[in-house]
Amino acid sequence: MTIKTDGNFSKSFNKVKLTKNEIGEFLICMISLVRGERLPNYVRDHSLLGKLKGYKEFHLSGDKVVIYKTDGMSLQLVNIGSHTQVFRSM
């Protein structure tokens, strides 16, 4: 599987301050997505609606989320940050 990042994701990833636990959760989720596996229930992976239909998000912690899209052949990382930061820029 190919992993692609949007400009928003790269910029946001460099700005967001992740704890060691959040970094670990991010890596666990990336490995699961690349393998085509379901994400752990506790990250609350779900599809988005409206103008983001076709995209999904999962939670690294209470308010930190990752927006992504996958088609089985590629994983597109769209954005990362708090709900406010992520959805303000979309």
Summarize the structure in words:
With 90 residues, the protein is α+β, with helices and mostly antiparallel strands. It has a single domain, classed as RelE-like (YaeB-like fold, 2-Layer Sandwich), CATH 3.30.2310.20. 34% of the residues lie in helices and 29% in strands. It is built from three helices and five strands; from the N terminus they run E-H-H-E-E-E-E-H. The protein has a five-stranded mixed sheet. Strand 3 and strand 4 form a beta hairpin.
Could you list some keywords that capture this structure?
90 residues, alpha+beta, five-stranded mixed sheet, 29% strand, globular
Question: What's the topology here?
Answer:
Elements: E1 2-5, H1 7-15, H2 20-35, E2 46-47, E3 56-59, E4 64-70, E5 74-82, H3 83-88
Parallel strand pairs: 1-5
Antiparallel strand pairs: 2-3, 3-4, 4-5
Number of strands: 5
CATH architecture: 2-Layer Sandwich
Q: Note the beta-strand portion.
A: 25-35%
Q: How are the strands of the biggest sheet laid out side by side?
A: 1-5-4-3-2
CATH superfamily: RelE-like
CATH hierarchy, class: Alpha Beta
Q: Outline of this structure?
A:
The protein has about 90 residues and is α+β, with helices and mostly antiparallel strands.
